[in-house]
Amino acid sequence: MPSAARLLVLLLGLMLLALPATASAKSKRGIDVSRFQGVIGWKLVGETKLKFAYAQASRGSGNDCLVVPEECGGDQTYDRNYRSAKDVGMRVGAYHRAFASGATPLAAKADAREEANLFIDVVGKVRSSDLRPALDVETPFDDMTPISLRAWIKAWLARVEAKLGQTPLIYTNASSWSATGDTTSFADSGHPLWVANFDVKRPIVPAANWGGKGWAIWQFTSSGRVRGIEGNVDKNRLSGGLGKISAR
């Protein structure tokens, strides 16, 4: 082999060795599900390469959903989805779809605690093998200012962390998060970001790249197809391993 070619092979080998340890972890994929997926064939899902799942535990507080109001409250599929996903070897977490309201911080905090209490009642506890709980913060927001929305989020997170002993993730997208004033305070407080941005090469990350920390999970499509699930399902990928979203 000519010396130049030998040198090129050597350089390529060194480049491969220098790849970050998270490169393989970045390929880990997961889904998030709710009652809208109906009955899921988790045995078939478990035969795919998916590694984790988030299951909706609750939406709003039972009578305040501005989207599909008849499907508000505790998610009746949560227990089955949680147990069945774990049975096939997937890591599982619970999320709450917020329907935040409150024109003043005082009103917002009261609404947030009501929604947090419902979520806590449904979830019960977080086990050591679980993923951290997550709060879905997205429009519409009902009669809120940036100040009252920030107060709502802070109150929900504080109540859930106090009762379940875990620092929750925040799920959002750039346009929804702008309603908070694009605050970095929750990133600075250690809440990992689960960002939604569909059908793009890389997501738009709010709050100054989430306070410089970037995203932990990226929901990259809402029209994924998975064996065992009829119709579309949200698909997600990790920016690193499962460690940063795992229960502590």
Large-scale geometry: globular
The largest sheet, given as strand count, sense and whether it forms a barrel, is:
8 strands, mixed, barrel
Average pLDDT for all residues: 90
Give the amount of beta strand, in percent.
Answer: 15-25%
CATH H-level superfamily: Glycosidases
Structural class: alpha/beta
Query: Which sequence of SSEs, written as H and E, runs from N to C?
Result: HEHEEHEHEHEHHEHEE
Helix content: 25-40%
Total number of distinct structural domains: 1
* Order of strands across the main sheet: 1-2-4-5-6-7-8-9
Q: How many strand segments?
A: 9
What is the count of helical runs?
8
Distance between the termini: 53 Å
CATH architecture: Alpha-Beta Barrel
- Reported by name, the CATH topology is TIM Barrel
Radius of gyration: 20 Å
CATH class: Alpha Beta
Low-confidence stretches: 1-26
Overview of this structure, please?
This protein is an alpha/beta fold. The protein has one domain: TIM Barrel (Alpha-Beta Barrel). It has helices at residues 3-17, 42-46, 78-87, 105-123, 146-164, 174-177, 185-188, 206-211, and strands at residues 29-33, 52-59, 73-74, 91-97, 134-136, 169-172, 193-196, 217-224, 233-238. Strands 1-2-4-5-6-7-8-9 form an 8-stranded mixed beta barrel. Strand 5, helix 5 (146-164) and strand 6 (169-172) form a beta-alpha-beta unit. The relative contact order is 0.16.
In short:
The chain has 248 residues and is an alpha/beta fold. The protein is built from 8 helices and 9 strands. Helices cover 33% and strands 19% of the residues.
